[in-house]
Amino acid sequence: xxxxxxxxxxxxxxxxxxxxxxxxxxxxxxxxxxxxxxxxxxxxxxxxxxxxxxxxxxxxxxxxxxxxxxxxxxxxxxxxxxxxxxxxxxxxxxxxxxxxxxxxxxxxxxxxxxxxxxxxxxxxxxxxxxxxxxxxxxxxxxxxxxxxxxxxxxxxxxxxxxxxxx
Amino acid sequence: xxxxxxxxxxxxxxxxxxxxxxxxxxxxxxxxxxxxxxxxxxxxxxxxxxxxxxxxxxxxxxxxxxxxxxxxxxxxxxxxxxxxxxxxxxxxxxxxxxxxxxxxxxxxxxxxxxxxxxxxxxxxxxxxxxxxxxxxxxxxxxxxxxxxxxxxxxxxxxxxxxxxxxxxxxxxxxxxxxxxxxxxxxxxxxxxxxxxxxxxxxxxxxxxxx
Lengths: 166, 210
Prior knowledge:
The structure holds two protein chains of two kinds.
Chain A: H1 20-34, E1 44-45, E2 50-51, E3 55-56, E4 63-71, H2 73-79, E5 84-87, E6 90-92, H3 99-112, E7 122-127, H4 133-145, E8 150-154, E9 156-157
Parallel strand pairs in A: 2-9, 4-7, 7-8
Antiparallel strand pairs in A: 1-4, 4-5, 5-6
Chain B: H1 11-27, E1 34-39, E2 60-65, E3 71-73, E4 76-77, H2 80-92, E5 103-109, E6 123-129, E7 132-137, H3 143-169, H4 181-193, E8 198-200
Parallel strand pairs in B: 2-7, 7-8
Antiparallel strand pairs in B: 2-3, 3-4, 5-6
């Protein structure tokens, strides 16, 4: 009558895997919720510059995007390779600076926001680092005219070694 | 007697879930948008007359970026990595030089009792710079270079704010919680002491075409 019977004869016991699907489903749901499918297809090539002082952009609902860059291959076939502006998901095909389109865009985006947030609208400028400032200045002037004054120069986080950073 | 239902084999459930999981893992782009937020000046009122504001020469640091992306700060050509130090010196004027900005005696109210370095009423008294940085660029300057310069200027002000905040409140300026009214007041106070005085001139074409 030994209380501690020696396990014997059975060899390796099978591991109970019945909870494995539960665990995997949990992970799956996490990723499904965390995923934000980008609904906009960016039709211009944008490689944003690097900067050390970047901050996270809070409150996605207040943000509208302006992309400036050279068009990607299949768009370039139609519009040429000169830098183009894309407003959220709409490519502006006009030559020069689309003051009208920008103005309309700002009005349209502002209309979507609730009354209390109308003056908190943020314009995120996702601009390729090789674009010349002429185009950027024109866009900034247009935004000033449309009274969209909070802008965010999109940039990647740059890490520098401590010594340089004072 | 009813037959007991045969048990469903759940062994493949894990495989299916894994397949879905891997799909989402691959397609997920958890890109957090980051960037430098700046405020554009409002459009000038057309009825308003052009008033020449006379600003003392010593209070202005002119930062020029030409069309070959060369940087000139206060009349001398400079590397971008030296700009931060220069800006900090410009805003603090530690040696009280005559060619750096005037420092003005100022009082700034902080929440009482928030720091042991402040008097009981929370009133900070000290020197605040009247300096303004004037950033000018050409139409042919590349955006990447322009943003790097912006970054250095913002970095200088952020460093000053952080140092001040560390000294008085033992916390970094960026780590203050804006949802907390006291900490927000502290932030507002520090913003008054170290202002983000970066003015951008109206765009102009300094030599050369677009």
